[in-house]
Design a protein that fits this description.
The complex is a heterodimer. Helices cover about 50% and strands about 5% of the residues of chain A. Chain A is an alpha/beta fold. Chain A has a domain of about 290 residues: Alpha-Beta Barrel (Anaerobic Ribonucleotide-triphosphate Reductase Large Chain). In chain A, helix 9 crosses helix 10. Chain A is globular, with a radius of gyration of 27 Å. Helices cover about 35% and strands about 25% of the residues of chain B. Chain B has ten helices and eleven strands. In chain B, strands 5-1-2-6-7-8-9-10-11 form a nine-stranded mixed β-sheet. Chain B has a two-stranded antiparallel sheet with strand order 3-4. Chain B is globular. Classes of the chains: A alpha/beta, B alpha/beta.
Chain lengths: ~850, ~260
């Protein structure tokens, strides 16, 4: 057998580590911001990259350190468990504005002490006018800012934070240590000739790399000292030995190459932790952990210095540590990335450069570690191809069955050619890993800017109905009035025109931010572990990487596809609804609730008219006038007609039901986003590539979107990723999967996301797991790219029983029988809840 | 396949894709309308009458039953061929009682078979054996319901005595033309005692070639449909069997027979 897949039980230590980690609410600390600012104040006038390296070293030399109880792998960025540092060099305004609410907000709250607030304020003051976010704003075209104010897209991620979204050469640090990397940089330094045109930048860059690597080595030694000190005072002989071992590990790595699996684990951890100390970018993804850790595991196992039990415990410890890191985002972003997630994506399985399957013991142990810790990090993924062992798939399916939502499944057969179409070599494409949510790339060579923006595809559709006017302002192209359109083609063309206009502005926003990061936040430590930075003498931000992309993601395909199909059928083909009627129905939210979204459009239009007439409207005047307009404009007859229109829309086929005509239509709609994107380049010389996934932004951004012609009411979440609209796929999982596979996943090379929900009975027993795995295999045969599953848990069903309004579309399938859960009587719901426990 | 077979018409009330509890792998179930029995616990009351009916679903009328050709049904069945191939699944006929529409059932199974799609049929075998025999050569798996061994009790709860069905079970097994699997809906107050299940297991064990028996725990998910049809649900107060009881019944089956027993389909 190529691998040993025997399960190893979880130890008591892991349970304790997790209990301690989650004992308190996460906390914001000020040490990093303070030290960063202190250093910057002292280095005024030096080259920026040198200042970055010196500040990194200053932070690592002085930031408080801690070894948590029972830890085997050490390195904590905050004293408080799951705490976070702040990064004022990117932005800070939002945090100061939220000082009083950040502890009580709904999404991802953080405790912050008054002393911390004061210290942060003091440090932040230095950064006024110096942040990447301010420079990015300067760089943006005026119309781009308008489009952002009107929520067509949001590039908030990198606008306010570091970039992250990278996988570095962990294997290189494991093999030669920072000692080796510093040697490489030193050799390049020797090549710098005083007469070279780029002498100044190259030499300074290389020196900055060396300073950063040395800082990390020194930081590890601080841990070695601390462990020794704690060992000296430790009364428990077992723990004392553990601490001494920790000290020894931290003396050796990451300075030198790892000589054991344990050292490799510790070395890996410092890299993972400190990349997130240098910058606030998230989605620092460990990638193919089962591959680069395997040689150390294998050697130790063979020479008898490691047991599988201890190896599993170390992996479990790393899994816990991945949840110790945290990040505070602004309130709106927190909603979009809900769950304190850092998206540290770790992937198992797949192929090597030569196309052979690489499944090994660690592939299984990583899946088991996720089952042991049962925490959100790492974002565990699995690569699937025709040669993936069935046993690995079954192990992954067992994890899915627990309801944890992991792993995500990726299809090599789509992703490899897709990456090659973007210029990757065959070998690089075959050894891809996933960044963040769903974004494929080649580790150690890529600056992919994978999560560059959220683009709401429903908003340009709204603008077609208003000829580019939003809240009274002409923000998009003045396309023909919809009432005058005589064919569907005209309508679709207007949509494409709106899309292309805003895609260009999205590119403008991203490029402005990209340039701001190059100018104000080059990262020398990151550059030490990504090719070809050292050879080119440039950081990743400055274009030092082999592969450079920008990947902004679009979402709402299902809504737009269903909407366009409804317009085509009802207005142009069957002529059952006039365009004027539909326009009115949308403006007044089909006669349903007049919420903020509806109100702001109406009030915006009124305000524009009043200003045109020379009046200066006050908010009170506007509110009154809008109310008057609504009660006057919408008659009882209108309301009746709106209901009729909604019923007609309801009866039209929807995306997600395996109806070829509708699905092909969705394919065309997706192209309106993915194809124009390919025209554009970023400042690093790289290509734009579209993604089709929303993280959880479909909820908050849906709240800013008016009613759409698919019958979706104003403010309701838009569809998630490439998935059908909630509750619109009524023909079961194979039909939904077939529809989704009709989209062109290959062209969305920044990734696509497909969510499916299951009741646990669908995965019960060995046959259930088999069927589940085969469902994935068949979806992938049809060129689906990604799929992940929510298995409905007993807790979810109990919550649905208590709050049915939140679960209108929850379908449960039991014994081949499917029903909308909330429509069942209490006693039947109880039967179903019992079945989630029985597993049949 | 002759054109006439493709045009054969039948009456169905549903097609359900991704069915994983009725036969091997991922399957598509075609529900044929009309049944000879009137089981008191039936979870598909809209399947019983051949006539097209109106069912009220959440206050809205829904027409139950439509006439379709074999060709039309196959169009839907074909959509999940990838999933059948990966999982060893295929087409399952259910009902109602498929044997109430023998020509349609046969034409469907034959067409699927000729296209290389695995076939199964859920049925209690309540028809003359000649009718069944016609179908067997196109059927990979016969999922046969045996609800009780006692004719009186069978008649009391389903409206018909069981002699014909038990006799057909013996003949189907003896033919060797299809894989026969016995399924028992476990209904409290009807057949959920240890003795009753043991009797069924002993009977099934004697059938040549039968290896598997499925115990299907009673569920009440059809209850709302009785209301929607304006009918009374006679089993209203009966609760589904407890998990522990099902496990005990499984043990009984394994004690009195050599059958492989599985809870659920």
């Amino acid at each position: 057998m190529r691998y040993n897949s025997t399960k190893v039980p979880k130890t008591e230590r892991i349970t304790k580590l997790i209990e301690d980690l989650y004992a308190k609410m996460p906390e914001i600390e000020s040490a990093r911001a303070r030290l960063l600012t202190e250093s910057f104040r002292q280095t005024e006038g030096k080259p920026l990259i040198m200042r970055k390296a010196l500040s990194f070293a200053h932070i690592l030399k002085n930031i408080p350190i801690i070894i948590r109880e029972n830890e085997l792998i050490v390195g904590s960025s905050t004293i408080a468990p799951r705490g976070c540092q702040t990064f004022p060099e990117f932005s800070y305004d939002w945090l100061e504005a939220e000082f009083e609410t950040v502890a009580t907000r709904e999404a991802d709250p953080f405790y912050i002490a008054d002393k911390t607030k004061a210290e942060l304020k003091e440090a932040n003051a230095y950064w006024k006018g110096r942040t990447t976010s301010e420079l990015a704003t300067e760089y943006m075209a005026p119309e781009t800012k308008v489009a952002m104010e009107h929520n067509i897209f949001t590039p908030g991620n990198y606008f306010y934070n570091g970039v992250g979204h990278v996988t570095v050469q962990y294997e290189k640090v494991l093999a030669i240590g920072y000692e080796g990397i510093m040697k490489e940089a030193g050799a390049e330094l020797l090549k710098c000739k005083p007469g070279d045109g780029d002498y100044a930048t190259r030499k300074t860059f290389l020196e900055a790399v060396i300073i950063s690597c040395q800082a990390v080595i020194d930081y590890a030694k601080r841990y070695a000292d601390l462990a020794e000190k704690e060992a000296a005072g430790c009364m428990d002989p077992v723990r004392k030995l553990e601490l001494l071992q920790i000290a020894e590990n931290c003396r050796n790595v990451p300075e030198k190459g790892a000589t054991s699996f344990y050292e490799a684990c510790q070395s890996f951890w410092f890299v993972q932790q400190l990349l997130q100390m240098e910058s606030s970018g998230h989605s620092i993804s460990p990638g193919r952990f089962d591959q680069y850790m395997y040689p150390y595991y294998k050697k130790d196992l063979e020479n008898g210095t490691l047991t599988r039990e201890f190896a599993q415990e170390l992996i479990d410890c790393i899994w816990v540590k991945l949840n110790d890191l945290n990040k505070c985002r602004d309130a709106d972003s927190a909603k979009g990335f809900a769950g304190y997630s850092l998206f540290q994506n770790l992937i198992v399985g797949g192929q090597d450069e030569a196309g052979r399957d690489v499944t090994n013991d660690l592939s299984f142990m990583c899946i088991d570690a996720s089952a042991h810790v049962f925490l959100p990090m790492p974002s565990l993924s699995i690569r699937v191809w025709n040669g993936t062992p069935h046993e690995l798939m079954i192990r992954a399916a067992e994890l899915t069955r627990t309801g944890i939502g992991l792993p995500a499944y990726y299809n090599d057969e789509v992703i490899i050619p897709s990456l090659m179409s973007m210029g990757l070599s065959l070998e690089d494409a075959r050894t891809y890993n996933i960044i963040g949510c769903v974004e494929p790339q080649k580790a150690g060579k890529t600056n992919g800017w994978h999560d560059a923006a959220f683009f709401n595809m429903c908003r340009p559709l709204e603008l077609v109905f208003s000829s580019g006017v939003d809240e009274g302002v002409q923000i998009g192209p003045k396309t023909k009035a919809v009432e005058e359109m005589t064919s569907f083609e005209e309508f679709f063309d207007a949509y494409k025109e709106q899309m292309e206009y805003f895609i260009e502005l999205l590119v403008n926003a991203d490029n402005a931010i990209d340039q701001a990061h190059a100018d104000r936040s080059p990262l020398p430590y990151l550059a030490s572990m990504v090719d070809d930075c050292i050879a080119r003498g440039k950081t990743c931000e400055q274009g030092g990487c082999v592969y450079n992309f920008t990947g902004p993601q679009g979402f709402g395909i299902a809504n737009v596809a269903d909407s366009l199909y409804a317009v085509k059928t009802l207005v142009f083909e069957e002529k059952k609804v006039s365009m004027a009627e539909l326009k009115k129905a949308l403006m007044f939210n089909y006669g349903k609730e007049v919420n903020n979204v509806v109100m702001s459009q109406i009030a915006g239009n009124l305000a524009a008219e009043m200003i045109k007439a020379g009046q200066m409207p006050t908010p009170e005047m506007l509110a009154k006038a809008s109310q008057a307009l609504i009660s006057e404009a919408v008659t009882a007859e209108d309301r009746k007609r709106f209901d009729e229109i909604l019923t007609m829309i309801e009866e039209i086929p929807k995306f997600g039901n395996d109806i070829e005509e509708v699905d092909s239509f969705a394919r065309e709609v997706a192209y309106t986003y993915t194809k124009p994107m390919l025209k554009y380049k970023n400042p690093r010389g790289g290509q734009y590539q579209a993604g089709l996934y929303p993280v959880s932004a479909n909820v908050p951004l849906g709240a800013q979107t008016g009613a759409t012609p698919d019958g979706r009411l104003a403010g309701v979440p838009v569809a998630d990723g490439v998935s059908p609209s909630a509750g619109k796929d009524v023909n079961g999982p194979t039909a939904a999967a077939n529809s989704v596979s009709m989209l062109d996943h290959g062209i969305a090379s920044n990734g696509t996301l497909f969510n499916q929900k299951f009741h646990p009975s669908a995965l019960s027993g060995a046959a259930g797991l088999d069927n589940f795995v085969n469902l994935i295999r068949a979806y992938f045969d049809r060129k689906g790219s990604h799929v992940q599953f929510n298995v409905v848990s007993r807790e979810t069903l109990l919550d649905a029983q208590a709050h049915p309004e939140n679960y209108k579309h929850l379908v449960v399938r039991v014994a081949g029988y499917s029903a909308l859960f909330t429509t069942l009587s209490k006693s039947l719901q109880d039967d179903i809840i019992r079945r989630t426990e029985q597993g049949f | 396949m002759a054109e006439t077979d493709l045009k054969t018409k039948g009456r169905i009330f549903d097609i359900q894709r991704y069915s994983i509890h009725d036969g091997t792998g991922i399957r598509t179930i075609v529900f044929l309308k009309g049944c000879v029995l009137r089981c008191k616990w039936c979870c598909n009351p809209e399947s019983q009458k051949y006539d097209i009916e109106t069912l009220m679903v959440q206050g809205k009328p829904k027409i139950i039953g439509r006439d379709v050709t074999v060709e039309e049904v196959m169009e839907t069945v074909e959509k999940d061929r990838n999933y059948y191939r990966r999982s060893g699944g295929g087409l399952t006929l259910s009902g109602g009682e498929s044997l109430c529409q023998p020509l349609f059932a046969k034409a469907l199974l034959k067409e699927a078979k000729e296209r290389g799609i695995n076939t199964a049929m859920e049925s209690m075998g309540c028809a003359s054996y000649e009718v069944i025999e016609e179908i067997l050569e196109y059927l990979d798996t016969y999922l046969m319901d045996i609800k009780h061994t006692n004719p009186q009790k069978h008649k009391e709860f389903t409206g018909k005595s069981n002699e014909l069905m038990l006799e057909n079970a013996r003949k189907i097994a003896a033919s060797g033309k299809t894989k026969l699997v016995i399924r028992v809906p476990v209904i409290p107050t009807f057949n959920d005692t240890l003795e009753e299940i043991a009797d069924i297991a002993r009977f099934a064990d004697k059938l040549p070639g039968v290896e598997k028996i499925h115990l299907l725990p009673y569920h009440r998910l059809g209850q709302d449909k009785y209301e929607g049809l304006g009918r009374d649900y006679p089993m209203k107060d009966i609760l589904p069997p407890e998990n522990e009881h099902m496990l005990m019944l499984k043990k009984v089956v394994e004690n009195v027979s050599d059958l492989i027993c599985q809870i659920g389909g």
